[in-house]
Amino acid sequence: MRLLVLGGSAFLSRAVAADAATRGHEVVAANRGRSGPVPDGVRHVRLDRADPFPEALAAEGFDAVVDVSRTPSHVRRAVSALPDAHWVFVSTINVYADDADPGGPGVGRLRAPQADDVDGAEDPEAYGAMKVACEELVRAGAVTSAVVRPGLIVGPGDPSGRFTYWPARLGRARDTGAGTDVLAPGDPADPMQVIDVRDLATWLVDLAERRTEGTFDGVGPVAPIGEHLAAAARGVGAEPRWVWADDDALAAADVRPWSGERSLPLWLPRPEYSGMPAHDAGPALAAGLAPRPVEDTARDTLAWLRATPDAEVTGLTAAEEATVLTHIAVP
Question: Which domain holds residue 55?
Answer without folding.
Answer: 2-150
